[in-house]
Design a protein that fits this description.
By secondary structure, the protein is of the alpha+beta class. The chain has a single domain, classed as 2-Layer Sandwich (Endonuclease, Chain A), CATH 3.30.870.10. Helices cover about 30% and strands about 20% of the residues. The protein has helices at about 50-55, 65-75, 90-100, 115-135, 195-210; strands spanning about 25-30, 35-40, 75-80, 105-110, 140-145, 160-165, 170, 185-190. It has an 8-stranded mixed β-sheet, sandwiched between helices. It starts with about 25 loop residues before the first strand and ends with a helix.
């Protein structure tokens, strides 16, 4: 088996703001640590042993460490656009823990109304009151739209998954944040302003809030 260096040390782990990082691509997977496998991100396709360790955990069984760190250190916005995001309990439990640790005050999720999505959305919304009761900084406002219906003529036909964390655009090849267990990659470090990601998200949010036929 070819041995490669284990994992990318996240810029946000080093304390470097994500906006200061050059755009790059990472593969969220499991990497071999000192004692066992752990969440990690590679700058190359994962080796077979890394992929198989991640695959057996299933969807929602792990998350990108780089993504987790970026959300944890966010100070303003965390906006997620992913049609499949609330489709399983394991993924949402990871999101609950993730949003419980962030300093971001503006959390928005745009997704589709899959089976069980409304109940899972309520799990995330319950975090607002929990954070208020805990007196841990300013609690986030969590808004979730389940109205992403690509069959509606008013709604853009969106294929990929995107996240805006503070002022940085993330492009995800599979479920946001490395929650999918298949081999997938994310690009990080694009300006959410120059790419018009913030404008696009706001326009989409307005369409979904107004409703459509």
């Amino acid at each position: 088996m070819m041995i490669l260096p284990n994992a990318v040390l996240s810029d946000v782990t080093r304390g470097v703001p994500a906006a200061a990082s050059l755009p790059r691509i990472v593969w969220p997977t499991m990497v071999l640590g000192e004692r066992s496998y752990e969440e990690g991100d590679l700058e190359w396709f994962p080796e077979d042993h890394c992929y198989r360790e991640r695959a057996k955990l299933g969807i929602g069984g792990a998350m990108s460490r780089v993504f987790r760190d970026a959300v944890r250190l966010a100070s303003n916005r965390v906006w997620l656009l992913d049609e499949q995001l609330l489709r399983d309990d394991k993924s949402v439990r990871l999101l609950v823990r993730l949003f419980g640790d962030t300093s971001a005050t503006d959390i928005k999720i745009v997704t589709a109304s899959k089976e069980g999505a409304a109940e899972r959305a309520n799990w995330l919304k319950d975090l607002e009151k929990e954070r208020q009761d805990s007196n841990r900084g300013t609690p986030p406002r969590i808004q979730i739209s389940l109205n992403l219906n690509k069959a509606a003529k008013e709604v853009p036909d969106i294929h990929d998954r995107f996240a805006v964390i503070d002022d940085v655009l993330w492009h995800c090849g599979a479920t946001i944040g490395g929650l999918h267990n298949a081999i997938n990659a994310m690009t990080i470090g694009w300006s959410a302003h120059t790419t018009h990601a913030i404008d696009f998200f706001n326009q989409l949010w307005g369409i979904l809030e107004r409703g459509y036929d």
